[in-house]
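TEACHING EXERCISE
Course module: macromolecular assemblies
Task: Read the component lines below, then compare them to the predicted structure of the full complex.
Student: A.B.
Group: 4
Components provided:
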Amino acid sequence: MAAVILETKGLTKSYGGLNANEDVDFELRRGKVTALIGPNGAGKSTFVGMVSGRIPATRGQVIFDGQDISALPAHKRIQLGIAYTFQITSVYAGLTLRENIAIAARRRLGKDRKAVQTKVSGVLEQVSLLDRADQDAGDLSYGHQRVLEIAMGLVQDPRLFILDEPTQGLAESEVDDFVTLIKTLVGDTTILLIEHNMDVVMRTADYIHVLDNGRSLASGTPEEIRKNTAVQAAYLGTDVDA
Amino acid sequence: MSDTKRSHLLHLGVIAVLFALFFVLPAYHVGNLSRIMVLAVYAMGFNLLFGYTGLLSLGHALFFATGMYGLGMAMNSFGIAAEPALLIGLICAVVMAAVVGFLALRTSGVAFMIVTLMFAQAGYLTILYFGAYTRGDEGFVIPQPDRMIAGIDITGETARYFAALILFAVVFLLIAHVVRSPFGRTLVAIRENEERTRMLGYDTDRHKLKAVILSGTISGLAGAAYALLFGYAGATFATVQYSIFPLLWVLLGGAGTTLGPIIGVAFMFYLIDLSSSVTQAYMLIAGVVLVLLTLFAPQGLAGELRRRVMRWLP
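Instructor-supplied answer key:
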């Protein structure tokens, strides 16, 4: 198996004359957690949108597990084993938690009711939401809705799990639970994490890729990124000490 | 008791009650109920698309009329027997739904409503244009001797009632099965949040097309059955009014519930029937009741029932 599970070449998105992403070359290592960071408006969500197929790319290539998926519609890419969680919570507010996760599970398990049920209960337990299984998702607190969103990704047993700001709006303890959860997934699942919380990034990420103004600025291990002067200038702010 | 078991009992119970009512009700109401059951089939077809998939079509009269004329013209113009004519009506509806669905689903929301409305209007005008064959507004009567199914004359009150009941029961149980199946649950998911459903790996376009075809086919079946059981086909059934009726029925009865259509049709039917026996301004009474219901039971009668007491209602 190749060490790289996902690769993009020259991935670009233009809105009118404005480039949200410009020629992004990117590699994602299999079984690792890679964090995608960058200031607001750097084009992180657009980038993962193009990877998942939610946002059509203006040009460039997306290669998943050796297969060029640039021309595939979103649902076909998801079927290949890419799970995607939305930055703005997007659950089925009018349906119960159990049904929310069951819809996500059913795409693979289909008509096998027993298997769906077992799988759903397992994931509910994994994210500690079993006691709320029969509540409507819309009645949950924001934090719990974020967790549900993650659970809907988990239940698909994805090969690549894309998380768009999963800890946004979570309480301190919930963030800790999230970090623990991510660590249990490492190995089987490749994780691409967009994250603003640098503490979470430093605790979970094996690699970091930095975007700035729609372009790749740097990539490497957390240690390398911390030392990178270009990143410091653009993002962490070097003139703090000055 | 599990929800599945409860759901089976409920649906079989409704059918049993309708069966029993034949022996209890006076002839006048038996006649009404035959009509209500056929129209409820129409409403169930509409409900699958509107109530479960969240797609509001304002042109379902086109499918109803397609089934009606498919059967009616096969019998009248070509002298085909009732059973194959019913099949022809059904096939016409499938084709019509596939074509309309394929084209109309390129739009969504308000545009979808307008496009389906326009298709239905085009269908209505086509019927008028070919008045030489369709007899236009005036319509045509399907002669009583031809209206036989499997050797049984279905023009009598008893045979008609049970023919309507069988049709209703088959579609009712079919819908109850579909909405609990993975396909039906996916339709609900599309209704609730289409983008999310797509990003869970479902081909939402294909699901929506299938829903339009199934919905249109059931509505067409209702149209064909209506022509066969009541012996008449006319352009009135292709008018906008007949596209709005199923929307009203389903809204009143409860969109997205299996019981909603039959409740809505029966309620509306008797509302008009009773109020017109009281006053000539019966539409006023009907209107006020509809406004009150919309205000105080926005999810319809069965919808309210589900919200308040029976959460498991399918």
